[in-house]
From TrEMBL:
It comes from the Bacteria. Pathway: Amino-acid biosynthesis; L-tryptophan biosynthesis; L-tryptophan from chorismate: step 3/5. Keywords: Amino-acid biosynthesis, Aromatic amino acid biosynthesis, Isomerase, Tryptophan biosynthesis. Its EC number is 5.3.1.24. Belongs to the TrpF family. This is N-(5'-phosphoribosyl)anthranilate isomerase.
């Protein structure tokens, strides 16, 4: 049923949404009730949104059949991949580090999960690797390039020039991320033409603390985009 919903959403040009970095039942429920198509768990100890696989498995079980479950990993080793696949069983693994297409193919083989690959964007040159991911990733996610020396690869509330996405040959099912919030998501979709959007810090009251009201406002705004 959920896959049919996703297909119909694409056919009707509906903007699909992903709420990432969820850590509590009430905020996950807010995402599900608001119609998020994807919900994300961040398994990365440096992140304020980190949640261990066993905790994530217990929490995200309530999302099965309602939204696609995504696990965000950063340059994961095989041991972590095995743990996530066995315990959490995500629909997708979002690779948010320096993974190569070859490594992504190994991740798919080891876990059986679909692949979302995050690409950091600052300027035109950052799109050079897009073609390398054709046939490898199910979805690409375009996020703002973090400042040099940053501990986190994303979730920092920074955005990039959305005009860079215009008139560009891209795979059909890509996400726009980076600095999105309830106030700017409609404009971001209008400028970029994004079919899907991803938010994390933009629906938080403090780093790692999701806000139900902001989640609802973001999903409502995205649905009108």
């Amino acid at each position: 049923m959920l896959d049919l919903f996703l297909m119909l959403a694409h056919l009707t040009a509906m903007t699909l949404t992903k709420i990432c970095g969820l850590t509590t039942p009430d905020t996950l429920d807010a995402a599900l009730q608001g119609g998020a198509a994807f919900v994300g768990a961040v398994v990365f100890p440096k992140s304020p949104r980190h949640i261990p696989p066993l905790h994530a498995a217990t929490l995200f079980d309530r999302a099965r059949g309602k939204a696609k479950v995504v696990t965000v990993l950063v340059d994961p080793d095989d041991a972590l991949l095995s743990e996530v696949a066995l315990i959490l069983r995500p629909d997708f693994i979002q690779l948010h580090g320096h993974e190569t297409p070859q490594r992504a193919s190994e991740v798919r083989r080891l876990t059986g999960a679909g692949i979302i690959k995050a690409l950091s964007i600052r300027d035109e040159a950052d799109f050079a690797s897009v073609a390398d991911w054709t046939g490898v990733a199910d979805h690409l996610l375009f996020d703002a390039r973090p400042p040099k020396g940053a501990d986190l690869p994303g979730g920092m509330g920074a955005s990039f020039d959305w005009r860079l996405m215009q008139n560009r040959a891209l795979p059909a099912n890509w996400f726009l991320a980076g600095g999105l919030d309830p106030q700017n998501v409609s404009e971001a979709v209008r400028i970029s033409g994004a079919p899907m959007v991803d938010v994390s810090s933009g629906v938080e009251s403090a780093p790692g603390v999701k806000d139900r009201t902001l989640i609802k406002a973001f999903l409502d705004a995205a649905s009108r985009s």
